[in-house]
Amino acid sequence: MRRWSVNQVSRWAVSLLLMLGGAAHAAEQLDRDSAQKLLERAAAAAKQENYAGTYVYQYGDEVATYRMIHLNDGQLDAERRESLDGPPREYYRAGTQVSIYPADQTGGSLDRRYTAKLFPRQLPEQPEKLLNVYGIKRLGHERVAGLQSTVYQLEPLDQYRYPHRFWMDDQSGLLLKWIVMGMRTEAMQTFAFTNIQQGGNVDRRWLKPTRTLQPVTIDSSVGSAKVAQEPGWDIKALPNGFRLLKQTSKTLPGKNRTVIHHLYSDGLTTVSVFIEPYHQRLPLGLAHQGATHLFVRQSGGALVMALGEVPAVTVEAFATAYNAR
Amino acid sequence: MKTGVTQGSDRELDQELVRRAQAGDQRAFELLVMKYQRRIARLLSRMIRDPAELEDVSQEAFIKAYRALPSFRGESAFYTWLYRIAINTAKNYLASLGRRPLMASDFEDEDGETLDAVAQVPDYHTPETELSNRQIVSTVNEAVEALPPDLREAITLREMEGLSYEDIAAAMDCPIGTVRSRIFRAREAIANRLRPLLNGVGKDKRW
Amino acid sequence: MNEKLSALLDNELDPAEWAAVLDAVKQDPQLQQQWQEWYIVRDALSGHVPLSGDFMQRFSARLSAEPVVIAPQRLTAPKGKRWLVPMATAASVAFVGLAVWQFSFRPAAQPLPQMASVSVPAHAQVNAAEVRAYLAAHRNGVADPLGGDHLTTVSFEVGEQR
User: Fold this and answer.
1) Are strands C103-105 and C156-157 parallel, antiparallel or unpaired?
2) Can you give the pLDDT of all 325 residues of chain A as single tens digits?
3) Which domain holds residue C14?
4) Could you say which of A108, A205, B47, B186 has the lowest number of CB atoms within 10 Å?
5) Could you give the C-alpha distances from B169 to A104, B175, C1, C10, C135, in angstroms and in order?
6) How many independent structural domains does chain C possess?
7) Residue A295 maps to which CATH number?
8) Residue B46, min C-alpha distance to chain A (Å)
């Protein structure tokens, strides 16, 4: 969905080819044990280190820059983020308490488990399950934000997810850059530090919010059901590695009907399944936005939609696994 | 002119069609759309990659041009005027989606001919489009190859080399009337081959 | 008349004859078709990409809905397409905001409409707000408080990216 000039596109394509192709050449598969240690190290660094810096987030042809600081003195794990482009936005978290600016008008809530899962901390702390569905390759070395880093790639072991590539600071183990790739190994989403300070260099004063923040409701009621239970529905086997995160029933903004929402994750990426009474406002079939897919089908008197940053086969598999009894 | 034929220029023909459209003849405007749709789409394909979107925006551009016809005074060539409308339509469209048009500086060029630079630009088309394009292009080329030599030479000199009838007559050492007839017969023969492909989607049922 | 039309395409027809030819074209669907085909041939030979076979048909349908009477008027702002729905509510925790969604739908298994394709695929268009609410719910589920806004700025369309 990029709309870039031809020069930009070709330059981008060339550099991407060089980058993806060249690096993949020297790829070295990590054994499972090393892979697990690696992911644990990255997760621990993001959680325990003090760091502050500026990172760029890119999705399609949209780019935005954020400044962030993370401090963990053993007692308090806190972070603050601020958008540097466009309308000012702030995000402040102390432990599990989150406040934001501007205030959320919709009365939404944040899932507790995800309040501390923003870049560069998105990896699960227990990566075992992740490694059931992804393998890790070491691709090479590269400088990011002035630091020497090693490039790895999470390679899906099946067709149900996309590769992720990450750059890990050789010294601290912190993630410096993260790319979610699409099906043609194009960069779908990128997070990348442009500068970063770590350890004693971090200016702690920067943690203090600059605006009047509003606390956000944290939803900690989230169950940990292993299998979705939905009366009237027969849910067949789902793509391997996806686990139910939560199961809610709510009215979507702007809708006056109740929609059942099942949220699944494989540890890196998520898929939502929505169930509601059949209507014709959504055409049946597959749609995509870049590498994000959507599949809609009818089952009995209901409409089932699967949606996620996953390949088409995945949303299709999710949608067809749900059948009205 | 040696031939005694007073030629009208392409620009004057366009203006005649515009004049007719301005007087309420929608068909005349459709003739302009038939003539320029591919050039406009090609132009906009630098900004809009998705083929379906590209066609939608191209249509929008022609509709906007139609609405703006009263303001067309003929100071510039119709294509130059259309070109600006098309670029603006695409820019507005991208802006409405929150996307930035990225090649702004390239678009200020008013000389329609420089658009041929676009020919160097790789197309952003799906494999299916490519297939269809190849099919049409190859059918046309095959049809040209299959023509009797006289017809083939005439149409080639006209469409590929851009020669005038007079120059073609000189090159082929024959009267201008013969050139005109050969080119017409060549076109008919090529169109006959092409028609099954075009008719696949219902040869513009309104027509 | 056909041959004159051909000459007209090449700027080789005496302007004195234009009116007669153009009047004839206006009345005669066959001449209109020739005009169309000959330009396709010309463009194909110069490398211009053919458009969908129904491009003209769709355009004519739109054009006929336009007022025919040409009165002085200013260039009007584009009418928002139905499926270009401004982002309304969703500025939630995920800061899903600002953007416009486009969602154009085609049945998954069918190729894009092509000039040479056998049939014209259905082209349904969907109210973008419909999809947006689900996406907001999906993203709220994973709480991407700062990144989420971008996700809404990219158009959603049907396709085969498998």
Assistant:
1) parallel
2) 334 444 444 444 444 444 444 444 457 899 999 999 999 999 999 999 999 999 988 776 567 888 999 999 888 899 999 888 777 888 899 988 888 888 766 666 666 666 777 889 988 888 888 999 999 999 989 999 999 999 999 999 998 999 999 999 999 999 999 998 876 777 878 899 999 999 888 888 889 988 888 888 777 655 555 667 788 899 998 999 898 888 888 777 667 778 999 989 888 888 999 999 988 877 788 877 767 788 899 999 999 999 998 988 899 999 999 999 8
3) 2-50
4) A205
5) 76, 6, 21, 14, 65
6) 2
7) 3.30.200.100
8) 7
Picking from A68, A79, A96, A106 by the largest number of C CB atoms within 10 A of its own CB, the best residue to mutate is A106
Q: What residue of A is the nearest CA neighbor of C105?
A: A287
* Any domain includes C74: no
- The whole-angstrom separation of Cα A266 and Cα A129 is 8
Statement to judge: residues A79 and A118 lie in one domain: yes
Question: What gap in Å lies between CA C86 and CA B95, rounded to an integer?
Answer: 12
Does residue B35 sit in helix, strand or coil? helix
User: Which of A218, A248, A265 marks a domain boundary?
Assistant: A218
Taking residue A219's Cβ as centre, other Cβ atoms within 10 Å add up to 20
Residue A1 lies in a domain: no
Domain boundaries, chain B: 8-120, 126-207
Sign (positive/negative) of CA torsion A312, A313, A314, A315? Answer: positive
| Identity of the amino acid at C104 | S
Q: Per-residue b/e over B87-110, b at no fewer than 16 CB within 10 Å?
A: bbbbbbbbeebbbebbbeebbeee
Residues of C in contact with B98 (CB under 8 A): 98-100, 153
B contacts of A4 (beta carbons < 8 Å): 102
User: What's the rounded Cα separation, in Å, for the pair B151 and B145?
Assistant: 10
Instruction: Collapse the DSSP code of B3 into the 3-class scheme (helix H, G, I; strand E, B; otherwise coil) and give the result.
Output: coil
Pair (C103, C153) in one structural domain: yes
Question: Residue C41, CB half-sphere, CA atoms under 13 Å: how many?
Answer: 29
How far B113 CA sits from the closest chain A CA (Å)?
A: 19
Host domain of residue A244? 223-324
A287 and A199 share one domain: no
Q: Does domain B126-207 have CATH number 3.30.420.40?
A: no
Same domain, A209 and A269: no
Residue A137's beta-bridge partner residues? A29, A153
Query: Fold for domain B8-120?
Result: Rna Polymerase Sigma Factor; Chain: A (1.10.1740)
